[in-house]
Automatic annotation (TrEMBL):
Keywords: Isomerase. GO terms for biological process: carbohydrate metabolic process. Belongs to the glucose-6-phosphate 1-epimerase family. This is Glucose-6-phosphate 1-epimerase. It comes from the Eukaryota. It comes from Sparassis crispa.
Amino acid sequence: MPVDVQPDRVVLKHPKGASAEILFYGATVISWKSGSSANPEAAERLFVSSKAAFDGSKPVRGGIPVVFPCFGAPTHPEHSKLSQHGFARSEKWILENIVMDNEAGVSVRFALEPTATIQAKFERPFHLSYVVTLAEHQLSTALHVKNTALSSTSPLEFQALLHNYIRAPSNEVLVSPLQALSYYDKTEATEELRSTPKVETRASVDVKTFTDSVYENARGKYEIAWPSGTLEVRAHNFKDVVVWNPQKEAGSKIGDMEDGGWERYICVEPGYVRGFVKLDAGQTWIGQQALTVLN
Ligand code: TA6
């Protein structure tokens, strides 16, 4: 049974052993198990804190939270009533359709439209679809944002990001290529320093210390490597990428972070987070990523 629809989630199973679980809450992928051509045994590829809530009481601490329409604390006037990272990750989505294709795998499409709760804090009309596709060694997710306004109102302006918690030893994992990119270091002590761009000089970036870096106009293809594994992230229409690990310094202050959880993941997050996407009435924007297990 490639698709199992349960009350709170959808479970996808690939005939060659891979699987994925997506909560209706936030359309949050909370599990992706996959092997590789070299090691066919399916293993969990995402990190979810053992203290994460799945009941809708708070955004899931782990997996792949969907960030929309703002990244971080809101800065756009139309987002002023929203909480950090927007509402998409903390609203209940519906299952829009299921597409099974034995060659490419299995896809499920979730949808989110304005509810009264959302409209109370975000007045713009929109339709979100989120397509999750499971293949033998790959998980891809695509966020479709449609501006459903009928007239030629001002464009819908938003940010979007896929907040991947990749399971990996944070004291050994490296991300590349980020060298020569301009980035903003959110660990800096002052707003002035956090707003001052730096240039990445390292060929490979580690997260052995508290890291919260927003890379601008990145390359859209990232290799995440550690001694026993390699995962590739390819992104389309997500011009930026965030690399985050709080380490104990910041991780120990996160209420739903399991003890030492920061040792077991790296966040590599394709996004459009510097500036805003401007979407005219009737237009659709698609941001897409593909996570592939290489080893
Ligand atoms: O993507 C990195 C980041 O913006 C960090 O600054 C940190 O806040 C992280 O997201 C987690 O945010 P959350 O709201 O899920 O606690």
